[in-house]
Amino acid sequence: MDFSVPQETQLVLDTIRRFIKDELQPHEAEVEEVQYVRPELARELRDKAKALGLFAMGMPEDVGGGGLSAVDMCLCEEEFGFTKDALVRRAFGAIPGSLVNCVGEQRDKYLYPAVAGDINVALGMTEPNAGSDAAGIKTSARREGDDFVLNGTKHFISDADVADAIIVTAVTDPSKGAKGISAFLVDKNTPGFTLGRIQYMMGLRATNHSELVFDNVRLPKTQMLGPEGSGLYQALSTINKVRLGMVGGRSVGMARKLMQMSIEYANDRKQFGQKIGDFQMVQAMLADMATEIFAARMMVLNAAWETDQGMDPREKVSMVKYYASEMLGRVADKAVQIFGGMGYCREMPLEQLYRDARVYRIFDGASDIHRVIIARSLLKNGRQSL
């Protein structure tokens, strides 16, 4: 089995690494402080990324994207872990994968402009009473002639404040359960659609989340994305790649950054007349970091490789999501311990990274949910072939 990174992939990674260092990291302090990315800065970063072929890298080539494989995107996401999520979204794009289900005029209005970076499209699934239980949504779309009338509320919707359109899941046939959920493309200026308050979070500042309110929003059937009843399937069919990349790969990248900072500090900081890196307890924490990062990275790349081979490693993806996010939490905690009081101080970037790391154990299915998925698979299928 060849674990080497192809030369063309390495060139992409080197370009991303330079771009993050030169173009994104200088804006991190401002974005963290004001909690948004200035529109003019967002346009500038997007245009520079597009010029280098770094925009929409994970979208298929036949719709204008970079066409990178799952393995390649996981490696890219590792690099993204070295800067703020909000800057990554504005520079490299945050395009819902289910947009590929657009047909006819939908492609010209939503898909191609999103992949080109001309519009922003968000995904609206989560509701106050339906987080990990994606099939438990209450937002409804009632058929009236050739139209659908949308009513309900969403929350925690990433990028809704900058979106030109939102893919919204709604119940079209309550009798069919998960198969009675459909997806709709809703433009931001549609009558009856209101953007609620921005829900500021403990971490990931400037990756803003918002409430959405739909009050008798009338949509022609041409705004339905994909066949009726396929809304949940569309959303979940692309989520494995999201979990592998944006959670698995990104967790590895963030953990690598934390370890790098910890190594440098352990070599510089002196206590009791010697570098703290000479103390065995600090050495043990660094060794634990490196070992866990390596383990998570191999898990991510193995599951991504199986995805690229057309396999469906959903249990492995749950293992990746669970282990990589928990690993990041442990690495962040050890980094704060190594830095001591300075690690807890807002003057140091470590405090921000510690806050950012916490949510990875929650979104895209909390760790507890993924442990249940893994256990149920084992109980149903017996010993898993790994």
Automatic annotation (TrEMBL):
Its EC number is 1.3.8.11. Belongs to the acyl-CoA dehydrogenase family. It comes from the Bacteria. Keywords: FAD, Flavoprotein, Oxidoreductase. One of its GO terms (molecular function) is flavin adenine dinucleotide binding. Its cofactor is FAD. The lineage of its organism: Bacteria, Pseudomonadati, Pseudomonadota, Alphaproteobacteria, Hyphomicrobiales. The keyword Flavoprotein applies. It holds the Pfam family Acyl-CoA_dh_M. It is an enzyme of class 1 (oxidoreductase). Residues 7-117 form the Acyl-CoA dehydrogenase/oxidase N-terminal domain. The keyword Metal-binding does not apply. This is Cyclohexane-1-carbonyl-CoA dehydrogenase. Residues 122-217 form the Acyl-CoA oxidase/dehydrogenase middle domain. Residues 229-379 form the Acyl-CoA dehydrogenase/oxidase C-terminal domain.
